[in-house]
Amino acid sequence: MTSTTPAASLAALMNPQSVAVIGASEDQTKFGGRLYKTLIRHGYKGTIYPINPGRESLFGIKTFPDITAIPNAPDMVVMALPTGKIKDEIKKCAEKGVKCSIIITSKFSDAGPEGAALEQEIVEIANKHNMRLIGPNCLGLISPANELVLCSSPALNVDALIKSPIGFISQSGALMGTLFDKAHSQGIGFSHCFSIGNQADLELCDFLEMLIHDDGTSIICAYIEGLKSPQRFIELAKLARQKNKPILAVKAGKTEIGSKAAFSHTASLAGDYASLKAICKSQNIILMDDPMAMFLLALSMSKFPGQKIGNATIITTSGGGGALTADALSEQNIPFSEFCTQTKESLAGLFTPGQAFNPIDLGGRRHDVLDTDKISELTAEIVMKDENVDAGLFVLTTAPSVLNTTTSLVTGAERTSKPFIVVMLPGQAANAARGYLVAKNIPFTNTLGEAVAALKNWQEWSGFKASPAVIWPDDLPDISQVKGILNESESKRLMASFGIPVNKEIVVADIAAAVNAASEIGFPMVAKVVSSQIVHKSDVGGVILNIQSVKELEQRLMIMLSNINKTLPGAKIEGFSLQSMESGELELIVGARNDAQFGPQVIIGSGGILVELLKDTLVLPAPVHVETAKQALEELKIAPLLKTYRGRPALDVETVAQTIHRLSLLACRLKNSNFEIEINPLKVKQQGSGCVAVDARAQIN
Amino acid sequence: MTSTTPAASLAALMNPQSVAVIGASEDQTKFGGRLYKTLIRHGYKGTIYPINPGRESLFGIKTFPDITAIPNAPDMVVMALPTGKIKDEIKKCAEKGVKCSIIITSKFSDAGPEGAALEQEIVEIANKHNMRLIGPNCLGLISPANELVLCSSPALNVDALIKSPIGFISQSGALMGTLFDKAHSQGIGFSHCFSIGNQADLELCDFLEMLIHDDGTSIICAYIEGLKSPQRFIELAKLARQKNKPILAVKAGKTEIGSKAAFSHTASLAGDYASLKAICKSQNIILMDDPMAMFLLALSMSKFPGQKIGNATIITTSGGGGALTADALSEQNIPFSEFCTQTKESLAGLFTPGQAFNPIDLGGRRHDVLDTDKISELTAEIVMKDENVDAGLFVLTTAPSVLNTTTSLVTGAERTSKPFIVVMLPGQAANAARGYLVAKNIPFTNTLGEAVAALKNWQEWSGFKASPAVIWPDDLPDISQVKGILNESESKRLMASFGIPVNKEIVVADIAAAVNAASEIGFPMVAKVVSSQIVHKSDVGGVILNIQSVKELEQRLMIMLSNINKTLPGAKIEGFSLQSMESGELELIVGARNDAQFGPQVIIGSGGILVELLKDTLVLPAPVHVETAKQALEELKIAPLLKTYRGRPALDVETVAQTIHRLSLLACRLKNSNFEIEINPLKVKQQGSGCVAVDARAQIN
């Protein structure tokens, strides 16, 4: 990697040889005072230029009255001036030749159109002079890797920063400080933390790219409110996978009210959570609910790079704690390790009879064979070495021996290469044990829920299978001319042209024509009215199902016409659509749309009454490989109905998957349009009998 | 209340005038040494008798070589001798006239049949001399109300106990110590905590009864593994409701593996969680997953006795924190307060435009009107006084002002009578703020999830409506003679005799009789084979649906016979059941059984394919009032299908509820039998058209 890549350039920019702090002082009630002191406290090795017109020196470092007064241009400048003063200061910095400025100040695009305009002006000034910007409305950066802290948060009031291969990008400044603070108390450190604020210039993806290329970072965490460049995000996620660097993310604004709060905060439009979830799933980004569970998992993964986990074992000092933990794991469907025979035999010598099973309650240790701590140590070692055990959860309760037990379990477990997480349920009584874990940099939490969330997400990440590359068929038609709102026939023709099975259909002008054409469709038959004035055909009696004969067809079409004449007098009837009546064992909905952020995607879900009850839909980024479609069908709540069910053979999942794949190709071809397509329902038949779209609609703009 | 009630007697027993500690010493590595020191440390006012044959005095208190050497019988004795020595010691205590002994030692009924036998012997010895027992296999008791601590846990290594009106009963000793420890660190204290262990003599319900009558206890928390006397538990729950004392509980062993751990722990058979849940729901017991969330809620409720909450408002120092909190509340369906006009107007003067909505981000405070802390204080006061706000969630992040902001919010909120919970997201940076909250005894947590769980459960508790008393009709038949496995006709006759609608049915001996009787049923008709040798009628072609005429009946019965002859040659055909063919819009399952712990109960759920997919069943303790049945139907996942749905009128919920009610009466009449009854399906028709059981089975032993 040469310094010509954007990531390398940004890495160099983030490791400045000199830093100017505008508003530096000794006053710890002021932003500039706190930031300046924190910078010095954490041992920055470069040149510091405190800017303060009223002082000769600060903490023994020569001050300057103004940025222009510094002999050389500092690499980096940080400022928290009032909003109104930022533009002038940025101009001075840019003209001086500063490489990067951090603007802490808020009330720019986060405060409405006026602020947004000012923000834009500032970016233009900076760009003109090749100066990059972080913020505004951010909290700066904390880079233990570079021994550089440009952040005023009291989170930094700690003796020493903890270095780790975890990088963190936060769209919320306050949360960056808060989470750094909380993480530090659990012994979790970082390589770099960036608060990106309004992302006026440098944005989340810039830092993501930098961290993906950073040798000192092996895991990347992000707190996301809304993505500025979703497509770039996807590309970087692919790159991170290639480089085996897991990305973990928490997204705020999952729900409507959450979105509202996120919007007001950093002026980011919270994207559709389901779409983001689909992207994350397709790229094996670990999307979590709880930032602290995210860090716990990040630390665990950084200690065991690339390790995959399936099942787990519990070792606990309390049967009650074991029971609660077992309940929590079971609810998350995390499987329990079943010990192999050798493990059972080894444990049998250490525990009273009937006590050596998963979850292991150390209360069952024998008192007549070995020191109890030694038994704890051996238990951890034996259990973690078991080939059926992927991960350990050590749940400690308040006891005089909590430090000894913790030490013993860690010592035993560390003789193996398996990951484990310690759950510290006690209060003050375990402070010494916590100190030991922090010093040893062992992943631990005080909250069982965080540990279970970490394991669950680790397990899901482990089970990832990359979608095979989609091979584009040669036979796809040119649909560049297809536009507007398509009626049912047109929609089905479009789909059929992409190889999607649709039911047989003839459109006829009148009843006489219907009678003549009936034999081409056959019976049972469906007849629907065709009229651009009638959108909801069923509501006006415009759909006739299960017609058994030509005679019935004729009679019932006459009744239909008479009914429509009564309810919609004067409606222009363009004709009738005669369709084959299809039976199916199950109805699905399959749709496609162009997501504003993530582009073309397919939505699949259960149809009929189930769709609303089950809220059973999944989003898949297009194109969708047939295998990926099959996997997605497995994840629907109605998946059991696709298999052999109550004596009925399995359904034709293969053709359903083909249909999803084909619709995804159609969606990709429409990627430059704003479109919505829906098959509702897709009737699914038994294996070998296929599936068929019996109603469809499309709108392409 | 006189001391003649069991609760008063137990209360007196738990407040002994003298306590003997067997194995008292100065050695803090030993149980007796720790317990003895802890007892003194926390200021027990009664007489202490240390028992230690090797010492004259301990910490200045005269020791005795043996329990028999004490001049008077101590009220209470605590012992942690090896299992083998307990029986003799108990005998000495009992003969001496000790009123209550606490046995800490384990390996009794928790270790298998041999231990159980020994435990039983010990109980008999104690009973003979009117001595009560706590344990064995317990951790003792912690009673801040009585300044009595008989517990060796390092959880007690604190300067002073916190008194509160929260009582706690724990079936796990280790968890009692652990949770006491953790609770203490969050400023949560107790009136009494009892570790009940194996409940050989005194059991959970004894302590529950005592706490319900205890004037110093207003909220009762319990950690339950299995109930020894479920019916008494229900009666006590009713009493607690009468006395307006909420009961909060966490039950371990919800899942299979959890149950395994619970069993091995205190030899308690974990009951069926669904049944317990039903009982808790019917008695408004708050059943939670997380013990710390339980204590947080207990403290909150104890500060605001009887207060009911619906919606909530968030005040936060970080937009990001607000967004995550809003997401978490929305996911739990906790509604957000919409501020009233006056609140909006008052806030408008304190916040920059567009920032004064729920969730409130204090980052939006104006800097030009008042001191920011004063704005925080006013904001809390204004918002909490809003008539649309029921509860507040104050989410604090790391900032230099975290203590000031916390103080301001609490001060403002305390001017109102509304409950609030503080969520402390920071690490070390908020330690001073935590100290303030502990000192003020304000409910707070470091984990957002705990606060959300507390609010959710508080909200559910608030919405409780007691079931009206069930009025028993006079017209119920005598069914005392009904026994054994009933066939479909017998099952339906039994149900019909209780007023449950069943479809019309005639049983005939042969085809000729079927043809003659057909007109009594009418068409369409269902015919089923009757044979005690054929259990699964459908599997052998023994069910014919939708018969339209006498001729079809005759023909198809002949085909049926011929088919059965082929598949089950020699099967004895007793006849045919002719039934009216019923249509319905929805199928339900309605069953009843006699639960081993909680007695007769009704189970309702969605039928057809939905039952397995949705896992949509609810248990209701019998008898079930019609109104309770209606409420339960509302809680089924398929509830939307019972209402007006896609143009189809609402279904006949009234008769379904009547059916559930009637089946529950039947279940109650069978309460002395082990029975299972099932209607599957109950076909539900449109409003006014009723519902009807079309298949049923029953087994009464």
TrEMBL record, chains A, B:
<dbReference type="InterPro" id="IPR003781">
    <property type="entry name" value="CoA-bd"/>
</dbReference>
<dbReference type="Pfam" id="PF13607">
    <property type="entry name" value="Succ_CoA_lig"/>
</dbReference>
<keyword id="KW-0436">Ligase</keyword>
<dbReference type="InterPro" id="IPR011761">
    <property type="entry name" value="ATP-grasp"/>
</dbReference>
<keyword id="KW-0547">Nucleotide-binding</keyword>
<dbReference type="InterPro" id="IPR032875">
    <property type="entry name" value="Succ_CoA_lig_flav_dom"/>
</dbReference>
<dbReference type="Pfam" id="PF13380">
    <property type="entry name" value="CoA_binding_2"/>
</dbReference>
<dbReference type="GO" id="GO:0016874">
    <property type="term" value="F:ligase activity"/>
</dbReference>
<keyword id="KW-0067">ATP-binding</keyword>
<dbReference type="InterPro" id="IPR036291">
    <property type="entry name" value="NAD(P)-bd_dom_sf"/>
</dbReference>
<dbReference type="Pfam" id="PF13549">
    <property type="entry name" value="ATP-grasp_5"/>
</dbReference>
<dbReference type="InterPro" id="IPR051538">
    <property type="entry name" value="Acyl-CoA_Synth/Transferase"/>
</dbReference>
<dbReference type="InterPro" id="IPR013815">
    <property type="entry name" value="ATP_grasp_subdomain_1"/>
</dbReference>
<protein>
    <submittedName>
        <fullName>Acetate--CoA ligase family protein</fullName>
    </submittedName>
</protein>
<dbReference type="InterPro" id="IPR016102">
    <property type="entry name" value="Succinyl-CoA_synth-like"/>
</dbReference>
<feature type="domain" description="ATP-grasp">
    <location>
        <begin position="492"/>
        <end position="528"/>
    </location>
</feature>
